[in-house]
Specification:
This protein has two domains: 1-76 and 83-95 and 132-362, PknH-like extracellular domain (Protein Transport Mog1p, Chain A, 3-Layer(aba) Sandwich), CATH 3.40.1000.70; 371-544, Protein Transport Mog1p, Chain A. It is 18% helix and 26% strand. The protein contains six helices and 18 strands. The strands form three sheets. An eight-stranded antiparallel beta sheet has the order 3-4-5-9-8-7-6-10, with helices on both faces. Strands 11, 12, 13, 14, 15, 16, 17 and 18 form an eight-stranded antiparallel beta sheet that branches. A two-stranded antiparallel ribbon has the order 1-2. The radius of gyration is 23 Å and the shape is elongated. Mean pLDDT is 78; it is low at 1-111 and 113-161.
Amino acid sequence: MVGKESESYRPRRAQPNDPGTTDPTQQSEDSKPLFRDDQPTEGRGSQSLGSADTHRLADVGEHAEAQPASGPGTSASRAEDDDATTILPKTQRRTAEPGSIDDRPTGNRTRTALLVGAVAAVVVLGLAIGYSIFSLSSPKAADPGTNESPSGSISASGSTSPSVEASVLLTDDSMLNAKEAKAVSDKRTWKVALTQKGLDANSPQPACLGGDPAEGQPTPQQTVLRLLSSSGKDGPGILHQADAYNTEEEAAQAFALTSKALGGCTMAATYIDSGQVVSGVGDQSLGLVLQVQDAAAPEFRSVILSRTGRIVNVVDVAQKNKVVSQRGVMAALAAVTNVQCTTSGGKCAENPDFRDGPPPVGGDQPGFLATGDLPPVGEPAATWVGDAPSQPNPDFTGSGCETTRFHRVKAKSASARTYLLDGTGGVFGLDEIVLTLDSSKAAKSLASDLLADMNSCKARKLTATVTKPKQVTGNAAKRAKITGWTTTVTQSTSATAKSTYRVGVSTVGPKLTYVFLSADVDKKLDVTDKEWDRVTIRAAQRASQVN
């Protein structure tokens, strides 16, 4: 995990993604232990809150404003078990490190940089107040918008007892226990490390959640936290948070706001690895997997959010190096749901399942990449800041291979956005352009034209080197299919200097998304090929979430 070691675990909401496992009770032995507990508790029995010294979290593991840049060089831019468990440190929110961003080759870039600096300063202040110590308040939620992830009706349909007071709706038996955690990893021994009624400044928190409540966030009448640790070296750890509300309407609102917070995750050095559409777990449910940058080994956070009647649950599983079985996490939460639904007024679990899809709708500009969609870059990772969408810049020429001028494309709508890293300077940044054309045929035709530009670039520009375009595919909202390609362009700017650009194009229905990144090799500011493929697909997923 990212951040200092703390006296108590402070995870954040995130969801696992492992489409390979089909048996909900199976989990790969590759899972790593996550928490150390000196006062183990088995079963659903009550667990008293131990001292902060006896419950620590270990490192877990596997699985804004600017304008587009112009011209080449300008960016508009997943061990063997033993008897020990590892300790997870605190997680941290993304915080911007104050600093200036160098002027870009164009006036627009200069204005962008200045604006990014101002926005980043505001981000720093807000995050410092809301998340610096991981203080917990009511879980956040978000408007799922057109995202498919939330499933099920908002109305209750199970055998329920709505007359039960929300303040006593949750009991120890309502929380995930050691037996049920076997669904996450059946080859490990699980123990309840902590059960806490209510929240305080030292309470653990799910990934991407914490700080001040979102606007419109209902106040839960009861909150219970439970931490579970597992045996073996680097074993996964689980945080389960359950909130009970007075009415189903309040719970649905809390689910929506929490969904939005997850979808726009601003956790420090973290980005959204993948999203899942979850079904059959209560009235509403969704999932995602987060990847946390760590110098030693990446950490993966597998999160599932669900609602049954008046109760909202989030299960966050942390593990180093690889993602735990997503089906295992879903099966564990389904077991909890079948206990809670008897009194919550909501649906029980029925044929729980999931499939790959976009993350929950989130970010400050729906339809565009959220900053949580962008991989952490730099050491320490700097904060991504995006500008307000505007018309494509007439001066934008991308990698120098493109013959298409996006501001001239006949489209129903055309908008662009630039993302920069605060405090890095140089030419590093990312541009995103979203076009809505007359038809899917027109979108694919334009994508083919752009691909032809890349394939013919070397013949047209002797200074250019272009890697063979790689085909990428993905799943968008409403089961729509995404197709596209990515490539890397290197332009020789002098006898000894070169500029490196990454280009990605994807289509979904009548929408085409173009993403462009100008790397700063000297400052080691770049993303990997795999990360760039994900960014290209994610851009189309985000575009598919709005009309």
